[in-house]
Amino acid sequence: MSQSPLTGQAGKLLFEHKVIGRHNAAYYLDESCGYIWVDAPHWLDEAYSDAIALTDTGILARNLNNIRIVSMAMRANGLAQARGIDLGAGYGLLVRGLRDVGIDFHWSDPFADNLLARGFEADEGPYEVAAAFEVLEHLPDPLGHLKTARAQFGYETLFFSATCFDPGDIPRPDWWYWAFETGQHISFFSEQCLDFMAHELGMRKVHLKGDVYAFTTLSDLSWPGGWTRRRLERKARKVSLAEQDYAAMKQRVIAAQRDT
User: What is the CA 235 to chain-centroid distance, rounded?
Assistant: First the structure.
């Protein structure tokens, strides 16, 4: 019997299905918190031979949307000057995009190459804000990962994405989000599960917009109204870190040349 990575409770077998066309995968439900996981996903090295799946044709559009939401939420909730870290930053698109609208974010990902945010790799912190977009569904122990990252970096607000299911109406095997063809999605969350995870982190869950959520210790974190969003969007056009970043990286290149 498979035990839930979140609670240790025995899981209920939902179904089995082939992933990547050849590996048998068993999907279990933790009924105590509304969490679905794949048991013993031994194919992950194969699944992540490329950091971005071939089928991920929406990666740019989603990142542009996430950049807008995170920057807007930070500005509207007094976090505009906070240092941020992207946990599972991939090639660095979100980090570079946030810096381009004036948000001081840094890159962290042990499984990907930093192509777009070079020079802005994370240090030891602390970081007041973190992001984990399209990360949690890829992890065999998402709660443990967030606890470890919080202990290391000290974040008090985490922005993340989650495509939630209804525990009372489990999606059928034809649900697109299972992503059987890539084998990369191995954790699935309900709203109830997100509440449980927030509690375990000593935080609370906030649903911001669409599939974007936050865990936070702030007493008041919310999505701003229309007039506020328009005002903040105008301000964001004037505070890019791009020129400042260019100057800093130029000095780094010059210093490296002197040392050779």
Answer: 26
